[in-house]
Amino acid sequence: MSTYRIGIFLRNLLLYITLTFFAFVMLFPFLVMVFTSLKEANDTYRFPPKLLPRAPITMAVEGFEEELPLYYVDNEGVQDKFVLIEKTVKVGEYAAANQLDTTYIRELDLVTETAGKTVIYEGEEVPLYDITVNGETIPMVRIARTALGRFADPNDPSKTLLQNLRDSEPVEKLTWHPENYKEVINLHGMDRALTNTALITILVVLGQLVTSVLGGYAFARLNFPGRDSLFVIYLGTIMIPFVVVITPLYQLMIMLGWVDRLAALIMPWIFTAYGTFLMRQFFITIPKEIEEAAILDGASRLQILWTIFLPASAPALATLSTFTFLYAWNSFFWPLVVINTGNESNRVLTLAVSVLGGRAADAPNLVLAGAAIAILPPVIIYIFGQRFFVESSTSSGVKG
Q: What is the mean pLDDT of residues 75-104?
């Protein structure tokens, strides 16, 4: 028995580890977006990249007006923290002509040529330079030139050393820059787009709830000639691709004078065959005896709908609200067609993020801050609405 329980425990543990791994893989791009939106622009171009936002640590050093960045340097075999006082110091790499394996780094400005002496190096005649090693001046050939950074001991600025700046690791601290969101909202017109998107989404959600509830109740409970045939035709419109209706729908917007106006983003989308089908399927599951008893008590159709059907259909309403919110909030193609991207007063969030991607192409932190503003509200809505979505799918989705 104990062996069986251990096997069950190990199997469940392996299952949870596997699910956790794949969940992290799915969440990783989202985490990259959020953390990058909190970085400085320079921090987004670092190599190798780091997930968490970081900022270099600086400190005031006597004799320098501005604070200087700290770096880890190799100080006589010990990792120490030095400040960078000069980014580009031109140096040469020198070696004795008969001992090229041992090289010495010296600043170009501090080295002089050996008078009248040259040597053949790699098939060419090159001058020799006087290099002092341990108090002894040795003629050497210059085998390479490069640029290094000059670092100084913050406690003793006179103590300096040279080191490759690109290979030097800066001393950093974890930080964040929430002001990126403020800059995106205030300076790039995201505030107006966010307001428009929220208004459009709320009106579309409310419109679809009203029309879907009324249509679903009519098709589920009212008997009228051609009801089933009309419902099949109405439901068949779901199979029509959106690209087929773009041109006639755009022409209709021109006739109504709604091009480049928010009405074009609201009115065509408050009617949905999917929502009507969803509510009809849910209303069918409600026993007719309850409705008949209400009619005998003198209740009208609207009273029955309001007091009986709506309270019982909370999962279906939440499901429809979630799907409608996600569609309306993330809609891009139709706003791109009917709203001019230069019209900032009627621009929606998806268009604003698209424009931001061009204007702030050199600042990925701002672009991803705009993307986070567009993505976070739907994610939050879905997290809160997923319980109703699952409940609706399992309770009414298979009944007809």
A: 87
